[in-house]
Amino acid sequence: MRPNIDNQKFKQFLLIKLFESFVKNMKDQAKEQQIRLRFLNSSNKILVTKNLFFEQFHYSLNEEEAAFLYQYFHAYYMKRKQRQFYDNQERLILLHHQNYECNLCHKAITLSNSELDHIIPWSMVGDELKNNLQMLCISCNRRKNKNIIIPFPNAILF
Ligand SMILES: [Zn+2]
């Protein structure tokens, strides 16, 4: 049986995959600096997001999509390098929110056999994004490594 897919979440999932591909295509220091400057020099960040996307994919984002994606562009291009520390209390809140199940395989987990994961890897977006954290069982976390695997459709990302 096909899972019941929430259209809105599915669209956001696709936009995140496009963002990932954008970042990979632009992986070059000079290009990244250029993009950073375009954001810094413009007061209309949404328009910059739209233009970048159009240049890369020939796809016109609507306002809502551009606003959604801008937070990812901002996180990637403006990220602070310092890692944030998350304590057990924050881990417990996440575990509770996930009903003490691994967010990918849904195996039962506790504080002692789970790990905190950045849904979109820390190396990409730092700690800039809100709600970018999930608890995973140890084997899922090892398997996930640096890939973006959106726990879909049970995403807590949005
Ligand atoms: Zn798991």
List the helices and strands and how they pair.
Layout: H1 7-25, H2 29-40, H3 45-57, H4 63-77, H5 88-97, E1 114-118, H6 122-125, E2 133-137, H7 138-144
Helix pairs in contact: 1-4, 2-3, 3-4
The structure holds zinc ion (ZN).
Distinct small molecules bound, one entry per kind: zinc ion
Content-based structural category: mainly alpha
Main beta sheet, described? Answer: 2 strands, antiparallel
Total of helices: 7
* Backbone CA Rg: 17 Å
Low-confidence stretches: 153-158
**Main sheet: strand order:** 1-2
Tell me the span between the first and last alpha carbons: 25 Å
What's the average pLDDT?
Answer: 88
Number of strands: 2
Query: In percent, how much strand structure appears in the residues?
Result: 5-15%
**Domains, number:** 2
The secondary-structure element order is: HHHHHEHEH
Q: Could you estimate the helical fraction of the residues in percent?
A: 40-55%
Please give a quick description of this structure.
By secondary structure, the chain is mainly α. It contains 7 helices and 2 strands; from the N terminus they run αααααβαβα. It folds into 2 domains: 71 residues, no CATH class; 57 residues, His-Me finger endonuclease fold (3-Layer(aba) Sandwich).
Structural overview:
The protein has 158 residues and is mainly α. It has two domains: 7-77, no CATH class; 88-144, His-Me finger endonuclease fold (3-Layer(aba) Sandwich). Helices cover 51% and strands 6% of the residues. The chain has seven helices and two strands. The chain has helices spanning 7-25, 29-40, 45-57, 63-77, 88-97, 122-125, 138-144, and strands at residues 114-118, 133-137. A two-stranded antiparallel ribbon has the order 1-2. α1 (7-25) crosses α4 (63-77), α2 packs antiparallel against α3 and α3 crosses α4 (63-77). It is elongated. Bound molecules: zinc ion. Zinc ion is lined by residues 102, 104-105, 107, 136-137, 140.
